[in-house]
């Protein structure tokens, strides 16, 4: 059980560590998205998360941050440095602000999930801060489900700006693409 006195420990992992954490990360993700029928309708499941992480982990600067309390993972986030063409795709690239489109210092944050019993306690902010410190880029981008108000409140507080709609494939859901210029 979490209490304000329960210490939170944040740990960083690299590309070689993702496979051993996959099942635990999928459990955290499933808890964080329980009751969000729009997520399942969009095709996002614990299995798709496992495939996504496995596909992203080979990126050289893949970084996973996990928050632990009492020895258990209570939240995680991950991302990696990438090119604007890779992250935004050819369809959206022309619509992105020129500074973010032409940068050679971009990271994509792919997931940020916190167990419900730990939400609203600053865990997401700590994970995000640790990711930014590890990735050290001028720009950060992420995708958010439209209508996920708690996540959007966090991203708005962190300074993200809406950049446009993003569809990860011809049959994929329409997501909100968000951009943040960091001080890196």
Walk me through what this model shows.
With 184 residues, the protein is α+β, with helices and mostly antiparallel strands. It has one domain (8-181): Aminopeptidase (3-Layer(aba) Sandwich). Helices cover 36% and strands 28% of the residues. It is built from seven helices and seven strands; from the N terminus they run E-H-H-H-E-E-H-H-E-H-E-H-E-E. The protein has a seven-stranded mixed beta sheet with strand order 1-2-3-4-5-7-6. A hairpin with an 8-residue loop joins strand 6 (161-166) and strand 7. Helix 1 (18-32) runs antiparallel to helix 3 (46-56). The N and C termini lie far apart (37 Å). The model has no long low-confidence stretch (mean pLDDT 89).
Keywords:
184 residues, alpha+beta, Aminopeptidase, 36% helix, GNAT_dom
């Amino acid at each position: 059980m979490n209490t304000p006195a329960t210490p939170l420990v944040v740990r960083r992992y690299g590309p070689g560590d993702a496979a051993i954490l996959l099942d635990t990360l999928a459990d955290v993700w499933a808890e964080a998205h329980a009751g969000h029928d729009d997520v399942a309708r969009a095709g996002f499941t614990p299995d798709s998360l496992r495939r996504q992480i496995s596909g992203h982990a080979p990126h050289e600067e893949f970084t996973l941050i996990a928050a632990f309390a009492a020895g258990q993972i209570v939240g995680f986030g991950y991302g990696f440095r990438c090119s604007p063409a890779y992250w935004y795709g050819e369809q959206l690239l022309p619509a992105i602000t020129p500074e973010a489109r032409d940068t050679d210092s971009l990271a994509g944050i792919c997931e940020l999930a916190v167990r419900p019993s730990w939400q609203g306690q600053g865990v997401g902010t700590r994970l995000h801060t640790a990711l930014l410190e590890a990735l050290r880029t001028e720009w950060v981008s992420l995708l958010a489900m439209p209508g996920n108000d708690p996540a959007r409140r966090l991203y708005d507080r962190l300074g993200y700006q809406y950049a446009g709609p993003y569809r990860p494939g011809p049959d994929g859901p329409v997501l909100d693409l968000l951009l943040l210029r960091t001080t890196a």
